[in-house]
């Protein structure tokens, strides 16, 4: 937690956080799905996992990436909360899905030995995961992604579970100038699919004081879901 935050880590992960998550994903102003003319939701496009998926998963791998067990300070960077759901194209929740998130730190470094020496912020977890419940909702507390050479700010996600193939994708930040020049983002030619991975981050003091929040729903297409 940042020193300015009035929420404790325990409070965010307890019942109070559950209420905030439910209200946030239910807010139609923050809708994160894009229906096609036939009523199906636009599937989240596959994107490369990149070369920096953790070589070894950290011991602390929960959904709060800004506070690492044993570290006396929070991670550098602007706090954000990412809320979302795992859905089928029909809008049905995919209960039991495992959602992973990984990204670089506030200085553009991943926790990976091949990334410029692996000198990432030790107070930044870099990776987190969760398994969604019946409503298929997830939440991560992390930092606003930053650019590094050759890439617009982005966060990597992966979804896996019984009955469907593993989907890796990336989340981008709306309004970032580098989005227009990012080669990986611009390989997405379907307008709705592109919209589905570009997320608006806005102040949400009821969720994260002095931080930002946004919705990122992950829709599994027919190529990933069996039957």
Structure description:
This protein is of the alpha/beta class and 227 residues long. The protein has one domain (9-220): Aromatic compound dioxygenase (Protocatechuate 3,4-Dioxygenase, subunit A, Sandwich). Helix content is 10%, strand content 25%. The chain has three helices and ten strands; from the N terminus they run H-H-E-E-E-E-E-E-H-E-E-E-E. It has helices at residues 9-13, 15-26, 191-196, and strands at 79-88, 98-102, 127-131, 137-143, 154-161, 164-173, 198-199, 202-203, 212-215, 218-220. The strands form two sheets. Strands 1, 4, 8, 9 and 10 form a five-stranded mixed sheet that branches. Strand 6 (164-173), helix 3 (191-196) and strand 7 (198-199) form a beta-alpha-beta unit. The termini are far apart.
Short description:
This protein is an alpha/beta fold and 227 residues long. Helix content is 10%, strand content 25%. The protein has one domain: Protocatechuate 3,4-Dioxygenase, subunit A (Sandwich), CATH 2.60.130.10.
CATH classification, class level: Mainly Beta
What is the third-level CATH name, the topology? Protocatechuate 3,4-Dioxygenase, subunit A
CATH structural architecture: Sandwich
What's the helix count?
3
Q: Which residues form runs of ≥5 with pLDDT under 50?
A: 1-26
Query: Largest beta sheet, briefly?
Result: 5 strands, mixed
The averaged pLDDT comes out at 86
- N-to-C span: 43 Å
Percent range for helical residues? 10-25%
For the record, the count of structural domains works out to: 1
Task: Specify the structural class.
Answer: alpha/beta
Annotated CATH homologous superfamily: Aromatic compound dioxygenase
How would you sum up the global shape? globular
Compute the CA-based radius of gyration. 17 Å
